[in-house]
């Protein structure tokens, strides 16, 4: 695991999830004057971990979070930990399943990443791979949007996605990209070791990474808008992967 820069966890539910996890937390900030029952679980969990709890005015939390909706709770945390590719394979092995990974090609919106992590956790994805440059990383906004999934889905950050994709293929993983000219995603059989590649919000998958993919998938659309939000498209594809791997009895 690799550590990055310090950050904040914002909001009540993300704070509870972080306090229940192994995430290293430096300090807990609670807005002065909040009703005790609204934050009782957070205070209890913080005390169990022997953490310092500071009651501070709302304007201090507003400044700390750049005026995001913090719900009166902010955790100052040690750096989010990024996994290695081996960690992702180990996570699949721990569950006794063939690997099911996501590769996110230069995703820029932290809300999209957080939403994708939430779906990935729900559908049993074993890990996410993102590039080190020109892409959003694990930030407080991602953590809040993920509603706690950030604590359960390992994320590897790599220097070169194409090289990593080839490494996955050498380790038996089949790569599926997304493209308007691909096969209908509803026919996708995600059995075996697979990685689903999701492109940038505007540009899609880079040409080199697209050439590396073993097969392309498309989401058919009959309406007037011929594109979907990246996290919505990812969710549809992830759940088709889930459906094929866990069919109804």
From TrEMBL:
The keyword Iron-sulfur belongs to this UniProt entry's keyword annotation: no
UniProt keyword terms in alphabetical order: Methyltransferase, Transferase
Name of a matching Pfam family: SpoU_sub_bind
All residue ranges annotated as the RNA 2-O ribose methyltransferase substrate binding domain in the record: 8-83
GO molecular function per UniProt: RNA binding; RNA methyltransferase activity
A single Gene Ontology CC term: cytosol
Family named by the database record: Belongs to the class IV-like SAM-binding methyltransferase superfamily. RNA methyltransferase TrmH family.
The protein's name: 23S rRNA (Guanosine(2251)-2'-O)-methyltransferase RlmB
């Amino acid at each position: 695991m690799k550590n990055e820069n310090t950050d904040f966890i914002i909001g009540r539910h993300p704070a509870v999830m972080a306090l229940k996890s192994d995430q290293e937390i430096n300090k807990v900030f609670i807005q002065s004057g909040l009703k005790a029952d609204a934050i009782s679980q957070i205070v209890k969990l913080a005390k169990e971990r022997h953490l310092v709890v500071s009651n501070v005015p709302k304007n201090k939390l507003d400044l700390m979070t750049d005026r995001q909706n913090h719900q009166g709770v902010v955790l100052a945390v040690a750096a989010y930990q990024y996994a290695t590719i081996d960690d992702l394979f180990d996570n699949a092995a721990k569950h006794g399943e063939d690997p099911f990974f996501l590769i996110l090609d230069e995703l820029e919106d932290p809300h999209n990443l957080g939403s994708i992590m939430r779906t990935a956790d729900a559908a049993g994805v074993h890990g996410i791979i993102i590039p080190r440059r020109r892409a959003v990383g694990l930030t407080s906004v991602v953590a809040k949007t993920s509603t706690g999934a950030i604590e359960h889905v390992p994320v590897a950050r790599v220097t070169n996605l194409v090289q990593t994709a080839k490494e996955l293929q050498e380790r038996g993983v089949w790569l599926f990209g997304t493209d308007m000219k691909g096969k209908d995603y509803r026919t996708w059989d995600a059995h075996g070791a697979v990685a689903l590649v999701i492109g940038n919000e505007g540009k899609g998958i880079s040409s080199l990474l697209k050439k590396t993919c073993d097969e392309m998938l498309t989401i058919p659309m009959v309406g007037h808008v011929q594109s979907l939000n990246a996290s919505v498209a990812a969710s549809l594809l992830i759940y088709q992967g889930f459906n094929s791997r866990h069919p109804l009895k």
